[in-house]
Amino acid sequence: MSAKTEFVEQAKQGRVLARRCTSCGFIHLATVYFCRKCGSRGFEDHPIEGRGSIATYTIITVPPAGFEKYTPYAWVVMDLDGSDLRISGFMAGIGSPGDLPVGTPARVAGFDERGIIIEKAVK
Ligand SMILES: [Zn+2]
């Protein structure tokens, strides 16, 4: 399975596929060639729970071609629980800042043509 496919499969199960340095344990989100912390070249797949809270977002009112049917929506940045990692993704139904206070609990809910799908989490 390709790295991209594996990432998508994990997202569909609510997880984020990160890469863990086999020398020092530092977690990276993207495919990297050298560990940012220790310089090692060894990595292993490390799925983490796709739960966290909204850090910031942009409400999209003028969508790219093909995305008109999804408006309004937000492109959100989510802080993942238990780490300093952030991911960005699509959240449907956000039309004004009142719809989504910063800090709102959120979770990864899937992956499709829109990218990572993020939903408000019920705690
Ligand atoms: Zn390392």
Automatic annotation (TrEMBL):
InterPro entries tied to this protein: ChsH2_C, ChsH2_Znr, NA-bd_OB-fold, Thioester_dehydratase-like
Superkingdom in the source lineage: Archaea
Pfam families, per database record: OB_ChsH2_C (PF01796), zf-ChsH2 (PF12172)
Domain called ChsH2 rubredoxin-like zinc ribbon: residue spans: 9-44
Recorded coiled-coil stretches: none
Annotated ChsH2 C-terminal OB-fold domain residues: 47-109
UniProt xrefs under SUPFAM superfamilies: Nucleic acid-binding proteins
Record protein name field: Nucleic-acid-binding protein
UniProt source species: Cenarchaeum symbiosum (strain A)
